[in-house]
Amino acid sequence: MTTFCFNQESQIIFEFNKKSNINTWQVVDDGVMGGRSVGQFSLNEEGNGLFEGHVSIENNGGFSSIRLNTNDLQIHTHKTISLSLKGDGSVYQFRLKGSRYERHSYIFNFQTSGKWETIEIPLQDMTPSFRGFKLEISNFDQDAIEQIGFLKASKKNTSFQLEIKHIHLK
Length: 170
Known about the structure:
Elements: E1 11-15, E2 25-29, E3 38-43, E4 49-55, E5 63-74, E6 80-86, E7 91-97, E8 105-111, E9 116-122, E10 127-130, E11 133-134, E12 144-153, E13 158-169
Antiparallel strand pairs: 1-13, 2-5, 3-4, 4-13, 5-12, 6-9, 6-13, 7-8, 7-12, 8-10, 10-11
């Protein structure tokens, strides 16, 4: 279940626990364009979201992603996305859309440490991108978010694992 809460300090976008309904999350792999990467999304024993799989460069592939439609999440005065997560030491991308009907996403790449950490992403630092190419339009400056997601991309065959505790607006 997507939980929304409004206060001055933090707004919950998604909080994972053992009772979380993750059926609203969608896995999108490079198979949509003929690739062979395979990702999956589940809850682990601790109740955290677990995005894992294998990125394959066969057939010009190279990515796996998950996304969630947020039903017009108003930003209000919040300026930062806060992620509590544990990666495998590799780079991931956080993605969002002001409208789920936009073709482009706003992206932010971040390096994971292999330990639990909090990644703070200023919304104004999220850059527009379409199919891996930076667009010549302004960085994110909208009043709402309709879709969020994570992407694992690679130019070589690799396995990946990203454990997520929560996603907040601050």
